[in-house]
Amino acid sequence: MGTFEGHLAGWVGAEHLAPAERGVDAAVTALVHAYSTTIYRVAYSVTRNTGDAEDVVQETFLRVLRHQHKLAEVRDPRVWLVRIAWNLVLDRKRRSKTRPETQDIEPLARVLPAEGLGADESLIAAQGRAHILGLIDMLPAKERQVLLLSAVEELSTAEIAMVLKTTESTVRSRIFRARRALQAMLALEESAG
Amino acid sequence: MKPDGEIDSALRALGSARPPEGMERRIHARLDVAPRRFPVRYSVSAAAIAAGVLIFAAILSPSNRSNSQGEDSPLHSAAARNDQQPTAQNPARDVEQQIMARPRSSFGTASAVHVPDQPIALEPAPVGQRRGHTRSSRTSEGKAGNVFHKANVTTKPASAMSEPTLATDARGSSGSHP
Question: Which of B3, B16, B18 comes nearest A186 by C-beta?
Answer without folding.
Answer: B3
